[in-house]
Amino acid sequence: VDDLSHVPSLSTRRRFLGTAGAATLAPLTALADTTIKLPLPGGPDERTITTAFPQKGALILQRTRPPLLETPMEVFDKSVFTPNDQFYVRWHWSGIPSEIDVASFRLTVRGQVNRTLSLSLDEVLALPQMELAAVNQCSGNSRGYFQPRVPGAQWSHGAMGNARWTGVSLKTVLDRAGVKAGAVQVRFSGMDDAVLPDAPKLMKSLDVDHARNGEVMLAYAMNGEQLPLLNGFPLRLIVPGWYSTYWVKTLNDIEVLDQPDTNFWMKTAYTIPDTPHANVQPGETGFKSVPITRMVPRSLITNIKAGDKLQAGAPTPVRGIAFGGDSGVARVDFSSDGGKTWQQAQLGRDEGKYSFRQWQLSFAPTAGAPVLMVRCTSSGGETQPDTPNWNPSGFMRNVVEQTQVVAA
Amino acid sequence: VFRKALRMTLITTAVLASFAAGAQQKLSLKSVTVDLPFGDRTFPDGPGADLATNNCLACHSAGMILNQPALSKAQWHSEVEKMRTAYKAPIDPKDVDPIADYLVKLGQRSK
């Protein structure tokens, strides 16, 4: 099963050849850029594959400024860990620091603490080190598949990635400052700023017990290297099992609060209906909203895409990735008949409960236009639902996805 | 006995190797300077195009809007209003409606 990390590149090659073919029809001004079509219902479906961003390789361009860059699905087919240079990127404000000097950078810890800290990176690196693998996923990953469509970044499934994060436990840092009795939440903010005066600076908060659970960490490395600036260099908050909105980038300020945080990014933005699967009817109003928090199980096929032509009856390898949300992957099931019958997949190496887990099996496609489906059940006992959720922000999609192919 | 000794040696080697790997992971971080692209896509001509250009592009590039699906007038109105009130874009309240009209038409263009 470890052989999952070694992957034949036939489908990837075909895809790249396909995009290269499209590029030759594009105007010459596009130069080296190629394009990709994302199967978003109703379009627009065409996106540029960009290599224009510092420390980043080929990514799907969703927005240039501030950058929204999506990881192409074939990247997830190659490895359970997403390479840093193809790890997706999402910023809210365009005031992104263009220069970070490791000698002068300071992390401040203040508020309801016994000692205000101003830590240099050398001091952070000298603290006891920890490491864990964890999926970072945007709350709005796959928003482009919501029907009816909703405004926001029109992501396909690649606003996520999995990395091995190295750094220090947030608990270690908070303990050095000494959290006062009566502390309620811990608020995090980074070096990015809005370009307009009075616009709300991005700040996110966790309950103090969550912040001190020993798993929430400050990462100074991903996959063994310092973070690309666009992924949060020099420090990023890692909140295993929770959506990326909490994973504050270029983190330089930690404030311990004695009141619940009611800033815009906690109270208004990144809220979901307080209903099962964050689901409401399109047009519904008056529902209670709560901050989005933990992730839910998902699974995707990475080596076969919609419309691919397969040989009917021939043993066909199918594989992909799954994750449990805030717990591990208990099982992955696959269907090649639109969900009528299911086959249990073989799981790849367990890299930890917050990591992607690879899965694979072999099946014989039935002639026609079979619908392939994959379904993850988490070790917490949650199974992906058969029907898609809907909410006005396009958050928390985790329906069992369908991939229709052609078999002859 | 030999097998046992061999196994002990292997375990010892593995432990030493993991300590060595741990030591190597004390990274030294290097300062970074980046130059981020600004975005050069523009809005198609039409009534309201100048308003969209002048009011939307201070905070984000045009691609954000050009990649949106066809949205209703009510949805676009609420988006522009959110930019004005929540995100403090200096949009004249009387321009919200014509900008929303332009964005609705933009969504209806052939894709």
Task: Give the arrangement of secondary structure elements.
The complex is a heterodimer of chains A (408) and B (111).
Chain A: H1 10-25, E1 34-37, E2 46-50, E3 59-63, E4 68-70, H2 73-78, E5 89-90, E6 99-100, E7 107-111, E8 117-119, H3 121-125, E9 130-137, E10 160-169, H4 170-177, E11 185-190, E12 203-207, H5 208-211, E13 217-222, E14 236-238, E15 251-257, H6 264-267, E16 271-273, E17 289-291, E18 298-301, E19 309-310, E20 316-323, E21 329-335, E22 343-344, E23 346-347, E24 357-363, E25 371-378, E26 402-404, E27 406-407
Parallel strand pairs in A: 7-15, 19-27
Antiparallel strand pairs in A: 1-2, 2-3, 3-4, 4-5, 7-8, 9-10, 10-13, 11-12, 11-15, 13-14, 16-17, 18-20, 20-24, 21-22, 21-25, 23-24, 25-26
Chain B: H1 2-24, E1 32-33, H2 49-56, H3 63-66, H4 73-85, H5 96-108
Helix pairs in contact in B: 4-5
Descriptive keywords:
heterodimer; A: about 400 residues; mainly beta; 5-stranded mixed β-sheet; globular; disordered N terminus; B: about 110 residues; mainly alpha; about 0% strand; elongated
Instruction: Name the assembly state.
Output: heterodimer
List the total number of helices of chain A.
6
Q: In which range does the helix fraction of chain B lie?
A: 40-55%
Largest interface: A-B, 57 and 38 residues
Overall, the morphology of chain A is globular
Largest sheet of chain B: none
Number of strands of chain A: 27
Secondary structure class of chain B reads mainly alpha
**How many strand elements of chain B?**
1
Low-confidence regions of chain B: 1-24
Instruction: Give the integer mean of the pLDDT values of chain A.
Output: 93
Order of helices and strands of chain B: HEHHHH
The largest sheet of chain A has its strands arranged as 1-2-3-4-5
Beta-strand residue percentage of chain A: 25-35%
Report the mean per-residue pLDDT of chain B as an integer.
Answer: 83
Terminal CA distance of chain B reads: 75 Å
Radius of gyration of chain A: 22 Å
Shape of chain B: elongated
